[in-house]
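Hi Y.,

Following your request, here is the sequence exactly as I used it, all 165 residues.
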Amino acid sequence: MGTPVRAAIVTEYFAAASDDVAVLALLEPDGPSALAQGSGEPLFDTVTLPSIEPFVMLGTLHHLLSGRPYRECAADLRHGQVVGGGEEGPWVVTVSEGLVQALAETTRGRLADVASRWARTPELRQLAHEHRPERLTPAVIALAALAHRAQDVRHTLYCWTRLPA
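Below is the corresponding structure, written out as tokens. Let me know if you'd prefer a different format.
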């Protein structure tokens, strides 16, 4: 008998000008990538990273990118802070400025190396079917590009997450 596969959480990372603006993503059932009425454009600049939760997994990514101890990365006041959402979700969660900066400043080659190392961490090995290094690398590069665009307009990153339906 095989090991049961856990239902993965739904996650989308997005850029917003402030916590107050970011929580507006909760007004749409489809979250921050919902299309705005009239323009057909997404409400927010988003990157989908299936099952990459903003707490332990992003703390590990921050640790791998920065070389800082995981405990220090996770202790950042803006790491994984819930800024809005109901008791059963969805929720909007902050991404630390340190991680945003590290993502924005890291070269593609280093991002690929970090993504490969990240894929081998215990948290991601559980989801190996979804996060093989060859699939994770483009996702990390896309997240870094989002971080760079966010910094260009003085926004920060957030995670919109909900439990699977």
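The first helix runs from residue 19 to 22.

Thanks again,
Q.
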